[in-house]
Amino acid sequence: IGLVIAILIFSKREDNRTIAGISVVPGLFNINETMTFGIPLVLNPILDIPFILAPVATIVIGYILVSSGFCPKIVLEVPWTMPPVILGFLATGGRPMGAISQLIVLAASTLIYIPFLIAYEKYQAKQAAE
Asked: What is the pLDDT of residues 9-18, one digit of tens each?
């Protein structure tokens, strides 16, 4: 969902914005095939880096938030299709810091994607010009 947010905020290309717009609702429920194959992310050397880096970074940030006591530990197993902020709230037993922690990692994921998205759009413009 970080890539979807980055595209909706920073993209200048209509085709990327259309794919992101189509992907918002499924992306909220962790169904990201429309982004994975619509952009495409598969075998895309520019977007492969954040595609791998963003989940690793969010896991590390989440670990730091939990180990520091900022976010309570997960006490409930929540279905994987639960939207991000609600998932954090429910998984921590209804504690608001779980939701805030999810907002933090969502912002981090979006920030990781932004420079790569800009580079990818420059590449797309160059390809279109040829």
From this structure: 999 999 999 9
